[in-house]
Amino acid sequence: QSVMTQPPSASGTPGQRVTISCFGSHSNVGSNYVYWYQQLPPAAPKLLIYRSEKRQSGVPDRFSGSKSGASASLAISGLRSEDEADYYCAAWDDSVNGWVFGGGTKLTVL
Amino acid sequence: EVYLAESGGGLVQPGRSQRLSCSASGFDFGDYAVSWFRQAPGKGLEWVAFIRNRGYGGTTEYAASVKDRFTISRDDSKSIAYLQMNRLTTEDTAVYFCAIDYYGSGSFDFWGQGTLVAVSS
């Protein structure tokens, strides 16, 4: 069971806006930055959002991140077929002195 | 060009050991912390271990699931990080990735392609 909670799946049609949530605790999301990764297995994850809301270089501005308290979210607007992938949130956890991940959300573009 | 490549994966019997390598090129490896992650078949990402750069003494951190069985180390002269895995179990079967914070994101923004470790009798 993952330390941070994400919905296992999400879906949308092309052009729609989709939001993926990530619920943590005071020791991770509540007190540290959140990072969002996109993965198309078996490839390595790709960093999309760092420090909760900053887009990594080269990432389209359709992707945005936000954080409030112990929860964070990734929003994808203008959904495209190539956005179909697995998405993970991650944060440093002060109580375990290590990185923790959400369980991942599989995004389907209908 | 920045490059990370894992090697050392393969089939290993339960209870045995395996050492993974993360070879780097194109940058001053010693300036960067390195982390190992893994992903079991059909499962999510899991952080495994972390080693700080020489400026922070090369100190290490481990996930509870591998602490006392796995050891992360680095040889900056060779630009290689290692993950020594002992007393392997079937639950350690996964693709193992190494990654660094190359772009200063505060997380891991540059990853290798991964190497598969399959623990089975």
Describe the structure.
With 110 residues, chain A is an all-beta fold. Chain A is 0% helix and 48% strand. Chain A contains no helices and 10 strands. In chain A, the strands form 2 sheets. In chain A, strands 1, 3, 4, 5, 8, 9 and 10 form a 7-stranded mixed sheet that branches. In chain A, a hairpin with a 2-residue loop joins strand 6 (63-68) and strand 7 (71-76). The termini of chain A are far apart. The mean pLDDT of chain A is 97. Chain B has 121 residues and is mostly beta strands. Chain B contains no helices and 11 strands. Chain B has strands at residues 3-7, 10-12, 18-25, 34-39, 45-51, 60-62, 70-75, 80-85, 94-100, 110-111, 115-119. In chain B, strands 2, 4, 5, 6, 9, 10 and 11 form a 7-stranded mixed sheet that branches. Chain B is globular, with a radius of gyration of 14 Å. The N and C termini of chain B lie far apart (40 Å).
Number of strands of chain A: 10
Tell me the quaternary state: heterodimer
The proportion of residues in beta strands of chain B is over 45%
**Tally of helical segments of chain A:** 0
Largest sheet of chain B: 7 strands, mixed
Specify the structural class of chain B. Answer: mainly beta
Q: Gap between N and C termini of chain B, in Å? A: 40 Å
Task: Provide the helix percentage of chain A.
Answer: under 10%
Pick out the low-confidence regions of chain B.
Answer: none
Helices and strands of chain A, in order, run as EEEEEEEEEE
C-alpha-based Rg of chain A, rounded: 13 Å
Largest sheet of chain A: 7 strands, mixed
Helix segment tally of chain B: 0
Helix content of chain B: under 10%
- What structural class results from the helix and strand content of chain A? mainly beta
Largest contact between chains: A-B, 29 and 24 residues
Number of E strands of chain B: 11
Approximate strand percentage of chain A: over 45%
Overall pLDDT of chain B, averaged? 96
* Uncertain parts of chain A: none
